[in-house]
Structure formats: structure tokens, C-alpha cells
Design goal:
Number of strands: 21
CATH architecture of the largest domain: 3-Layer(aba) Sandwich
CATH topology of the largest domain: Rossmann fold
Low-confidence stretches: 168-180, 183-190
Strand order of the largest sheet: 18-17-16-19-20-21
Mean pLDDT: 80
CATH superfamily of the largest domain: von Willebrand factor, type A domain
Radius of gyration: 28 Å
Order of helices and strands: EHHEEEEEEEEEEEEEHEEHEEHHHHEHEE
Strand content: 25-35%
């Protein structure tokens, strides 16, 4: 347990009072110093009790998209954290990475939301062959006076284990499609259009890949490694309305049915699909590269009713808009004079102070981690666009930055508000 800055100041004050009481022989100062010490001890005891209650309420569920990977391969880890929040405390959770592995992104560290939940989504790269087990988590709890790190490595917080195979010469070829394909920068007999590398021949290599010019030049057999071709499954996003929206059951049923049909069609066409079910900025379910259509249907049906939205996004600062405002005001200041110039300078100053704040919404971090974890070219967004739509704008903005096409779809109903356009996305399609 480490003291925070206010606790250190109180401790220094108590020490000074005690020193003054000894030098001046002042009982009142000694009593004040003793009272401060008792106050700090009471705060420490209360903090330890809070940490113990939070730790006792922690529940961790961890899943991975694949448990068998080659050496140097990447597995997507999704960890769901839940706890009972304590007033006046800030909690964050960090995954303990197993030895011989590395995390590609920073998604293995996440602050816990006020309702006591957090979702960690990151890529884990296996550097050595063997079995890699997830050791557990580190819980960081802080209040205005103390902070503590608690390593939780018992059985409920460990697992699953990854089976890392030594680096193989070739990968299994994946199904090719005439459209929506990409080339993977990994060797495969199923050739792509580009040459990846040339290496020496190993027993078992296909003789058809021998580079005869290199072989004749160096008097040793060399083979060519080509990139392989694989399909790119889409991401289906289903935005469930909140309880306060009052949408009709018919409109919600059409929306849910459309998302369910989209996931089934993607699995038939590409072999897998990624699914994200949200309600505003509240993440309800995430399935990455799922090949089981009934599992996608179950996740959709579990959330197919108006949800209680504990958090909203309408107070978020649109950082892109703030940057644009600062640039506009800077140009206005250079050409205006008098009160108009002072007004634009003041607006630019307020926007710059807002941009200086370090706060980044948890939902924005989750979306960024998701888009980095799965290679995407298309996102199908199913939403009624009722009430606050800041969350779908955030999703569309991040997808636009990564050049991912967003196809929004909604329901034609009198109680469903169809937006004129969603910035960074295709025109909104209305489904029957």
C-alpha cells in the first residue's frame, strides 16, 4: 500500500507538529499530531477493508479466438472483468502476461467503469513454443489517500492455456473467394500474387516451389515462399435501444432479425464473422471470427430487448471537432480585429484547454482495440438511431480513420428516427 500525495502531506504535518511539541513542550501540538496519526491509521484501515471487499467481489472470464497457434502467431484475448464498486475509489485492471509472450496493443490494461466492469481486448503474440497459461490479473485500487496493487493469480483468475507449436514451414490453406479477399504475409502453398521470401530447401517442401535460378547459382536448393489468399469476414454491430426510447416491439424485432440474418450470411460466405452487440456505449457481447452461427444467434437473442443504459455519450468531447474549431479560430484571429478577434481567441483558448485533458472514454478505447484486433474491410451497423447517437458516430469516425467501410441500416417505423447521414459512413439503408 502506497500513500498518495495528500497522505504524505498529512504525515509531514504530523511529524512537524510532534517536533514542535517536543521542542516547545506544547501538549496541544502533541495532541494535534497524535490526532493526525490516528486519522491516517483510520484511513489506512478503511482503505484495506475497501480493497478486501473489492477483491472478494472480483469475477474474471477470459476467452480466446484460438487455443492452438504457431510460434510467433497471435491469439485474440477477450477478458471480462466484474466487481462490486466502492464509493470514493478508482480501480484499474491489468493482465499478467505469461513469460515468452508479448501484447501487441495496450488493451491488456484498462480502467474499471463506475459500475465495476471492464472489458480487456488485446492481441497476445507467442514468442516461444510450448504451453502458455494466462497467470492472472493485477488489481490496482486507489482513493485520495492510498493506492495498492493486488496480484490475483489463484485458479479463478487463471487460464485458458495456449498450445504453441514450433514454427511450421507452411500453413493450412484457407478457402478462396472471388471477392473480399486479401493476401496474408505468411507462407503457403496456396499462392498469392506476391513473393514473400526465398529460403533454403527443407525436407518435405513442395518441389514445385524450387527457385531453379538460385539453385543453379549457389549449388544449393532454394524455394520461393508466396503470400496466401484468404477472405475478410465483416463485423456486424447491433445497437440495442435503451429502455427510455419506447420503441415498438415490431421495429426491434425487424432490427434484430436483420442483424441475425447478416451474421448467418457472412458465415456462409466467408466461413466466419465478428459480432459486437452494444446498447449505446455499453458493450453487451463480443464474438471475434466466430464460425458457429447458433452461437451468434444466442448472443443476439440474449440482448434482444430494450436495455438499461447506465452510461451515455452525449457529454463526450469530439476531439476532431475541437481541433477543427481551433484551426478556424486561428485563421479568424489572423484576419479580424477588435472584439471579433478577441472572441475567436477566447474560443480557441477554451478548445485547447479541453484538448489538454487526458480523459479518453472507455468505449472509444474498446472500439479502437476491436478494430486493431480483427482485420476488417466492412462494418454492418444495425441501429434504430434513436436518442443520443454519439456512440455510432464514434464508431464511424474510428472506422473512417482505418479506411473501413461502414454500412448503416435501420428500420422504417414511425418511432425510429432515421438520420440524414452518418459522417464517415455510407447512406443509411432502411430495411423492411
Amino acid at each position: 500500500m502506497e500513500p498518495q500525495r495528500p497522505t504524505t502531506a498529512i504525515g509531514v504535518m504530523a511529524a512537524l507538529l510532534m517536533a514542535g511539541a517536543v521542542v516547545l513542550d506544547d501538549p496541544a501540538a502533541a495532541l494535534a499530531a497524535f490526532s493526525l496519526v490516528l486519522f491516517l491509521a483510520a484511513l489506512a484501515i478503511r482503505f484495506r477493508q475497501r480493497v478486501a471487499r473489492i477483491a472478494a467481489s472480483v469475477k474474471v472470464e477470459r476467452v480466446t479466438n484460438r487455443k492452438i497457434i504457431p510460434q510467433g502467431g497471435t491469439s485474440v484475448i477477450l477478458t471480462t472483468f466484474a466487481s462490486r464498486p466502492e464509493p470514493g475509489t478508482a480501480v484499474s485492471v491489468r493482465e499478467i502476461l505469461p513469460p515468452g509472450s508479448s501484447a501487441v496493443s495496450s488493451g491488456h490494461v484498462m480502467p474499471v467503469s463506475p459500475d465495476g466492469s471492464a472489458t480487456l481486448l488485446y492481441n497476445l503474440t507467442a514468442l516461444v513454443p510450448g504451453r502458455l497459461g494466462m497467470p492472472g490479473i493485477v488489481l490496482t485500487v486507489a482513493d485520495p489517500f492510498f493506492s495498492a496493487d493486488l496480484a490475483m493469480e489463484s485458479a479463478p483468475f487463471r487460464g485458458p492455456e495456449l498450445d504453441v507449436h514450433p514454427h511450421a514451414t507452411y500453413e493450412r490453406s484457407r478457402k478462396r473467394n472471388e471477392d473480399a479477399t486479401r493476401e496474408r504475409n505468411k507462407p503457403s502453398v496456396s499462392r498469392g500474387y506476391h513473393l514473400r521470401s526465398v529460403r533454403e530447401y527443407l525436407p518435405g517442401d513442395d518441389i514445385r516451389t524450387v527457385d531453379w535460378k538460385m539453385t543453379a547459382k549457389y549449388q544449393r536448393m532454394f524455394i520461393r515462399e508466396f503470400t496466401s489468399v484468404e477472405s475478410v469476414p465483416p463485423l456486424v454491430v447491433l445497437d440495442i435501444p435503451g429502455e427510455e426510447s419506447g420503441v415498438s416491439d415490431e421495429a426491434l424485432a425487424v432490427l434484430v432479425n436483420g442483424a441475425n440474418q447478416e451474421t448467418a450470411a457472412a458465415i456462409r460466405r466467408f466461413g466466419s464473422v465478428s459480432l459486437l452487440v452494444i446498447s449505446g456505449i455499453n458493450v453487451l457481447s463480443i464474438l471475434l471470427e466466430e464460425r458457429n452461427a447458433p452461437r451468434c444467434t444466442g448472443a443476439i437473442l440474449d440482448a434482444a430487448h430494450p436495455q438499461v443504459r447506465l452510461h451515455h455519450a452525449y457529454r463526450w468531447k469530439n476531439r476532431a471537432a475541437l481541433h477543427a474549431t481551433v484551426r478556424t479560430c486561428r485563421r479568424a484571429v489572423s484576419r479580424e480585429e477588435g472584439s471579433v478577434r478577441h472572441f475567436h481567441a477566447r474560443i480557441a483558448s477554451v478548445c485547447r484547454r479541453s484538448l489538454a485533458g487526458p480523459y479518453v472514454p472507455v468505449f472509444a478505447i474498446q472500439v479502437a482495440s476491436l478494430l486493431r484486433s480483427v482485420h476488417l474491410t466492412e462494418i454492418y451497423l444495425y441501429s434504430l438511431f434513436e436518442g443520443d447517437d454519439s456512440h455510432v458516430k464514434e464508431l464511424a469516425a474510428q472506422a473512417q480513420e482505418q479506411q473501413i467501410r461502414v454500412i448503416p441500416r435501420t428500420v422504417a417505423a414511425k418511432d425510429a428516427m432515421t438520420p440524414r447521414e452518418l459522417p464517415g459512413a455510407d447512406p443509411v439503408q432502411v430495411i423492411a
